[in-house]
Design goal:
Largest sheet: 2 strands, antiparallel
Order of helices and strands: HHHHEE
Shape: globular
Number of helices: 4
Distance between the termini: 34 Å
Structural class: alpha+beta
Number of strands: 2
Radius of gyration: 17 Å
Oligomer: single chain
Length: 83
């Protein structure tokens, strides 16, 4: 006999995504870009705790940030995607 699992059970068991989060509305791109700009400003000012809090907030809202170095390696570019 084969046991069937629903997506919530699988996610819970494997700890991939919070089922409640997947039902939440996604942040709009305009808000994401605003928060990335605030985070970049905080980082340039050495306010790393504030920058980390913004990153954590975005992650809780289902947005993953990726920091990549530009050509020349001095300046970071932040890209993002929904998770």
């Amino acid at each position: 006999m084969t046991k069937q699992f629903n997506l919530e059970q699988i996610n819970s068991a494997l700890d991939f995504i919070d089922p409640a989060q997947s039902k939440r509305k996604k942040l709009k791109e305009k808000e994401i870009f605003r928060l990335i700009t605030l985070r970049d400003k905080a980082r340039k000012q050495g306010k790393f705790t504030e920058a980390d809090e913004i990153r954590e907030h975005l992650q809780k809202e289902g947005v993953m940030l990726v920091d990549e170095k530009h050509a020349g390696g001095k300046e970071l570019k932040t890209t993002w995607k929904y998770i």
